[in-house]
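Following the same procedure, sequence and fold were stored together, as reproduced here.

>
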Amino acid sequence: MKKFLRGHYLILGIIAGVILGGIVGSFYPETGVRVGFLGKLFINALKMIVLPLILVSITLSIMKVERLGSLGLRTFVYFISTTAIAVILGIVLVNLIHPGVGGAVLTGEIPEIIKGKENMSIVEVLLLEFVSPNLFESAVKFDILPLIVASILFGAAFAALGRENKPVVELFTLLDKAVMKIVHWIMIFTPLGIFGLIAERIGLAGGGSQVIALAAELGRYFLCVVLGLFIHGVIILPMILFLFSGRNPLEYVSHLGRALLTAFSTASSSATLPLTMEGVIDEAGVSPKVARFVLPLGATVNMDGTALYEAVAAIFIAQSYGIELGIPQMVVVFFTATLASIGAAGIPEAGLVTMVLVLKSVGLPIEGIGLILAIDWLLDRFRTTINVWGDCVGAAVIDKYESEGQGKV
């Protein structure tokens, strides 16, 4: 028993943190808000190490990968395929359940988080975000996508140097070990951090009864999103994992408990990245050079949960305003939600910002976002968990095909 407790200290601690945070936030909301500083310290510590982790991991991965073209192509195909499946699932469910039909016509206001972004275009969100004129400014703003692109370019450049890059490979290998050592230190305080995050978030919402009331108010919408995420995360992604990697889904997910619970608690796939890397590489046994490329990239552009949510939310808003969307508009929602999710940075509630693109694409009122804002913080945790799970499945699937391809060389 003692051996079990020692080996599962973190996972048990995280579960305890979630439960205690929920209890404190529900019954003592003011206390929950006061202990929120523990969560802020934890998030800041994770974000502190995320950028070094991304820069080192991707650069090192590219330098060590013999066939960057195949790795990049397989990663792209996986990301697009699973995101498209998630969006289709969301569109089907929202049209079957009709969560916005039957009630009073709702109204909303433009939330503060998206004010000033009403005129964004898909080009601004995607293409212009890929390359930054100032990488230091991008790092300060936590704009991860241009940093990933720069890391890929530097890694490819070092790889092209051949044997001359040996000192650089050794340096980045040492940096990678140092970064992961810091990650291990941060992980010790994960239970306390998650306790603070959950307690504060529920406390700010007014306690557990208020959370339940909000969920009931938007009950069918909440059910539709959670049901879609459940089907995608518990049925579709495990099937993909089993069929394309040969891994046992239950065994694989058992190595990722800390990462998935942290994703739910922080609502940030980027902040969860250090724990995701540790679980996938050290515990699940995925090749480091594949995981170091797939996971940081996935934390930024592979958002299955966000894509599904945006499709459901857009059609729910249309139903709530009494606006009927035809097949052509549904197709537009499909493509826009798939592309917009790529531009959703792995930070809390980023999906609300890219939701603007989806609504504009079919002429829906942006104020409709105000309808779902009250419950979005809770749904954000569910969809972030699916985002991270999708990245982990992708790493295992791509690792399988990369190892087979190298075996044939």
Remarks:
- The first helix runs from residue 2 to 7.
- Confidence is low (pLDDT under 50) at residues 1-7.
